[in-house]
Amino acid sequence: MNIYNTLTKKVEKLIPNEEGKIKMYTCGPTVYNYVHIGNLRTYIFEDILQKGLEYIGYDVKRVMNITDVGHLTSDADYGEDKMAKGAKREGKTVYEIADFYTKAFFEDMKSLNIKKPSIIEKASDHIDMYIKMIEKMLQDGYAYVSNGNVYFDVTKAKNYYELSGRNPEEMKVAVRDDVEEDTNKKNPGDFGLWFTLSKFQNQAMKWDSPWGIGYPGWHIECSGLACLYLGDKLDIHCGGVDNIFPHHTNEIAQSEAYLGHKWCNYWCHGEFLNDKQGKMSKSKGGILTINRLQEEGYSPLVYRYFCLGSHYRKPLVFTYDSLDIAKNAYQKLLQKTSKLQEEGQLDSQSIETYNEKFKKAIEDDLNTSMMLTIIYEVLNDKSLNDKTKKELVKKFDKVLSLDLLKEKTKGIEKEKLEYINKKIEERKKAKQNKDYALADKIREELLKENIKLNDTREGTTFELI
Ligand code: AMP
Ligand code: ZN
Fold it and tell me: How far is the CA of 27 from the centre of ligand 1 (A)?
């Protein structure tokens, strides 16, 4: 498997610490609002990475956090607490907010066929671990206490800039005019490990600690959960590109300070989903959710298909026009796969050939558009019988997870799909016979049943309206 590593800035051969096993950590959402489709692009990428690795034979143990404490409106240490802000907005407690949006996140994952990581843990449930790590960092001189808060001293970290490729000047975020300067810090780039009540008087989630009542910084939670559940060596750590700095940079600094050795070998980042204004982000507002897309007639798997069409390391611009193209293509694909019969003998030679091709696409830095191309190649291969095609589609869908052969595809039942396909076929024949009256009649009849036909260059597709 070759994968791009942000740490070395190159595509590298993946060599796990333990043969055949991958320990993978993926940053989870801050649950103060619905996740938007940009966040979900990152989670889809991570899902494909996990399933791709499993497909080529690795045993993957994956951990994800749910951030319910410590994440301020800035990724550095200034601004309001995101959870408190969400609670205020909705007149609820932070616990209610966390609970509600965690459930909503799980529902989104389910509707997108994203496999739940084997371990998903709430940040607020592991305070003891963060305290243990912070105590060790203080002991070893990586951290210091100042005015009740504990900070990590970035000048003590080895290769602090390696992951981001930044220079020290850029890092002085806290001396920018628009940013409140934290005079407790020794160096402007230092970051908080533990905040006491000195910062937020009415912080809802707070715990006792050797430094007073307070709460942990955002970055320590991921280091804490990763070390607790995956041990002292990680193979892969993922997130979106905005996590590279400061979040992942700080995770490396703290984890390696705590462990005393190199922590994670491969850092994999998904590029943004952008809208016309730039990065889609929760704090900017105007976000699109999976529910919203559903209300507008796009099934969640249309969005998954849309994401798979482009490489995870390329920014992807969201427009309804491109989503419509994905919708048509996906529906056509479903039409084709739903027609596959159980007839014929399995052609094991062809299965082997296509399977190898599919594995190569995975191993080529997760080439999802190539994976889709291979599915089309299989479906269009006249030398293959239906049974063989079906077997290959079934195999590939373990990674793609587009419900290509499910009895009941999301939002559309198999019988209905067969009925629509039959009608489309009848209409095609009518048109070939120049019986346009019959063709129009079939279209209108379907429309009455809320099935709209679209004639495209590649053939007729349909949508449920
Ligand atoms: P957050 O809840 O803001 O911590 O974000 C959760 C995950 O979504 C992180 O891994 C982010 O890097 C990622 N993310 C945030 N915005 C976008 C976006 N517009 N496109 C892709 N990924 C994003
Ligand atoms: Zn994280």
Answer: 9
Q: In 3D, which of 449, 446, 450, 448 has the Cα closest to residue 424?
A: 446
Q: What is the pLDDT of residues 395-451, one digit of tens each?
A: 999 999 999 997 655 556 777 888 888 999 999 999 999 999 999 999 999 988 878
The ligand 1 atom at the shortest distance from the C-alpha of residue 42 is: 22
Which atom of ligand 1 has the smallest separation from the CA of 243? 12
The Cβ-side half-sphere exposure at 136, using a 13 Å CA radius, reads 15
Torsion of CA 373, 376, 381, 387, to 10 degrees: 120
Task: Give the C-alpha separation, 462 to 453, whole Å.
Answer: 4
Please, are residues 65 and 30 in contact by the beta-carbon 8 Å criterion? no
Q: Closest Cα partner for 381 from 351, 422, 345, 420? A: 351
CA 247 – ligand 2 centroid, Å:
6
- CA-nearest residue for atom 12, ligand 1, is 240
273 close to ligand 1 (CB < 6 Angstrom): yes
- Mutate which of 36, 242, 281, 303 for ligand 1? The one with the most ligand atoms within 8 Å of its CB, which is 242
Q: Is the CB of 331 under 6 A from ligand 1?
A: no
User: Is 150 within 8 Å of 138 (Cβ atoms)?
Assistant: yes
Token duo for residue 236? 């892969």
Tell me how far the alpha carbon of residue 408 lies from the centroid of ligand 1, in angstroms.
31
Cβ–Cβ < 8 Å for 307, 272: no
Among 39, 211, 12, smallest CA distance to 109 is for 39
State the DSSP string of 273-341. EEETTEE--TTT-----HHHHHHTT--HHHHHHHHHTS-TTS-EE--HHHHHHHHHHHHHHHHHHHT--
Residues forming beta bridges with residue 66, ordered by sequence position? 122
Asked if 452 and 462 count as a contact pair (C-beta separation under 8 A), the reply is yes
Fold of 18-275: Rossmann fold (3.40.50)
Q: How far is ligand 1, taken at its centre, from the CA of residue 376, in Å?
A: 31
Find out whether 150 and 270 touch, Cβ atoms under 8 Å.
Answer: no
Domain residue spans of the chain? 18-275, 296-400, 414-464
Tokens of 241: 């590109």
Alpha helices in 112-238 (DSSP H): 127-139, 218-230
Predicted confidence (pLDDT) per residue in 131-189, tens digit: 999 999 999 999 999 988 999 999 999 899 999 998 777 655 544 444 456 788 999 88
